[in-house]
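Look at one record.

>
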Amino acid sequence: MNPTALACTALLGLLVFGGGLAVSLLRFRDRVIVGPAAQLNALLNRAVRAHANTCEYAGVLAALFLWHGSQQPAPWIVGLIVAATACRVLLVIGLVAYARMDRPNPMRFVGALGTYVTGVGLCGALFVG
Protein backbone atom coordinates (compact mmCIF):
# COMPACT_ATOMS: atom_id res chain seq x y z
CA MET A 1 0.00 0.00 0.00
CA ASN A 2 1.26 3.42 -0.92
CA PRO A 3 1.94 5.41 2.29
CA THR A 4 0.95 8.71 0.69
CA ALA A 5 -2.46 7.32 -0.26
CA LEU A 6 -2.93 6.10 3.31
CA ALA A 7 -1.87 9.43 4.81
CA CYS A 8 -4.21 11.36 2.50
CA THR A 9 -7.08 9.01 3.35
CA ALA A 10 -6.37 9.60 7.04
CA LEU A 11 -6.43 13.37 6.47
CA LEU A 12 -9.83 13.10 4.78
CA GLY A 13 -11.05 11.11 7.78
CA LEU A 14 -9.77 13.78 10.14
CA LEU A 15 -11.60 16.43 8.14
CA VAL A 16 -14.85 14.45 8.43
CA PHE A 17 -14.61 13.50 12.10
CA GLY A 18 -12.86 16.69 13.23
CA GLY A 19 -15.43 18.73 11.35
CA GLY A 20 -18.26 16.79 12.97
CA LEU A 21 -16.80 17.38 16.41
CA ALA A 22 -16.36 21.09 15.66
CA VAL A 23 -20.00 21.37 14.58
CA SER A 24 -21.15 19.60 17.74
CA LEU A 25 -19.06 21.88 19.95
CA LEU A 26 -20.33 25.00 18.15
CA ARG A 27 -23.92 23.81 18.49
CA PHE A 28 -23.37 23.31 22.24
CA ARG A 29 -21.68 26.71 22.59
CA ASP A 30 -24.36 28.55 20.61
CA ARG A 31 -27.25 26.51 22.07
CA VAL A 32 -28.50 25.57 18.60
CA ILE A 33 -29.52 21.92 18.80
CA VAL A 34 -31.14 21.58 15.36
CA GLY A 35 -31.03 23.69 12.24
CA PRO A 36 -28.95 26.69 11.30
CA ALA A 37 -27.80 29.63 13.39
CA ALA A 38 -29.87 32.79 13.06
CA GLN A 39 -27.30 34.66 10.98
CA LEU A 40 -26.31 33.27 7.58
CA ASN A 41 -22.58 33.87 8.05
CA ALA A 42 -22.38 32.60 11.65
CA LEU A 43 -19.40 30.34 12.33
CA LEU A 44 -21.80 27.46 13.06
CA ASN A 45 -23.36 27.71 9.61
CA ARG A 46 -19.96 27.93 7.92
CA ALA A 47 -18.74 24.89 9.88
CA VAL A 48 -21.89 22.91 9.02
CA ARG A 49 -21.42 23.69 5.31
CA ALA A 50 -17.72 22.77 5.44
CA HIS A 51 -18.50 19.47 7.19
CA ALA A 52 -21.37 18.60 4.85
CA ASN A 53 -19.32 19.40 1.77
CA THR A 54 -16.45 17.30 3.08
CA CYS A 55 -18.79 14.37 3.71
CA GLU A 56 -20.13 14.64 0.16
CA TYR A 57 -16.69 13.98 -1.35
CA ALA A 58 -14.55 12.23 1.27
CA GLY A 59 -16.00 8.74 0.83
CA VAL A 60 -15.50 8.53 -2.92
CA LEU A 61 -12.09 10.18 -2.72
CA ALA A 62 -11.00 7.78 0.03
CA ALA A 63 -12.10 4.81 -2.07
CA LEU A 64 -10.17 6.15 -5.06
CA PHE A 65 -7.10 6.86 -2.92
CA LEU A 66 -7.11 3.37 -1.41
CA TRP A 67 -7.70 1.63 -4.72
CA HIS A 68 -4.93 3.47 -6.49
CA GLY A 69 -2.69 3.18 -3.43
CA SER A 70 -3.03 -0.59 -3.48
CA GLN A 71 -1.95 -0.80 -7.13
CA GLN A 72 1.59 0.65 -6.95
CA PRO A 73 0.46 3.98 -8.43
CA ALA A 74 2.46 6.02 -10.88
CA PRO A 75 3.88 9.28 -9.51
CA TRP A 76 1.27 11.34 -11.36
CA ILE A 77 -1.53 9.43 -9.60
CA VAL A 78 0.13 10.02 -6.23
CA GLY A 79 0.31 13.69 -7.23
CA LEU A 80 -3.42 13.71 -7.93
CA ILE A 81 -4.08 12.13 -4.53
CA VAL A 82 -2.01 14.79 -2.75
CA ALA A 83 -3.59 17.58 -4.80
CA ALA A 84 -7.12 16.31 -4.09
CA THR A 85 -6.38 16.23 -0.38
CA ALA A 86 -4.93 19.74 -0.47
CA CYS A 87 -8.00 20.96 -2.33
CA ARG A 88 -10.33 19.50 0.28
CA VAL A 89 -8.34 21.24 3.03
CA LEU A 90 -8.43 24.53 1.08
CA LEU A 91 -12.18 24.28 0.65
CA VAL A 92 -12.72 23.76 4.39
CA ILE A 93 -10.44 26.70 5.21
CA GLY A 94 -12.22 28.80 2.59
CA LEU A 95 -15.57 28.12 4.23
CA VAL A 96 -14.56 28.41 7.88
CA ALA A 97 -11.83 31.05 7.91
CA TYR A 98 -13.58 33.66 5.76
CA ALA A 99 -16.25 35.67 7.56
CA ARG A 100 -18.71 35.60 4.65
CA MET A 101 -20.09 32.40 3.22
CA ASP A 102 -22.36 34.21 0.77
CA ARG A 103 -19.44 35.53 -1.29
CA PRO A 104 -16.84 33.59 -3.25
CA ASN A 105 -13.24 33.56 -2.10
CA PRO A 106 -10.05 32.21 -3.68
CA MET A 107 -9.62 29.26 -1.31
CA ARG A 108 -13.13 27.98 -1.90
CA PHE A 109 -12.75 28.41 -5.65
CA VAL A 110 -9.42 26.59 -5.86
CA GLY A 111 -10.62 23.93 -3.43
CA ALA A 112 -13.80 23.23 -5.36
CA LEU A 113 -12.28 23.36 -8.85
CA GLY A 114 -9.31 21.28 -7.74
CA THR A 115 -11.61 18.66 -6.23
CA TYR A 116 -13.47 18.31 -9.52
CA VAL A 117 -10.31 18.15 -11.64
CA THR A 118 -8.43 15.70 -9.42
CA GLY A 119 -11.52 13.57 -8.82
CA VAL A 120 -12.17 13.25 -12.54
CA GLY A 121 -8.48 12.48 -13.07
CA LEU A 122 -8.51 9.71 -10.46
CA CYS A 123 -11.70 8.25 -11.94
CA GLY A 124 -10.23 8.43 -15.43
CA ALA A 125 -7.12 6.65 -14.21
CA LEU A 126 -9.32 3.66 -13.34
CA PHE A 127 -10.09 3.28 -17.04
CA VAL A 128 -6.47 3.72 -18.12
CA GLY A 129 -4.94 1.40 -15.53
Helices lie at 3-30, 43-69, 75-96, 106-128. The mean pLDDT is 97.
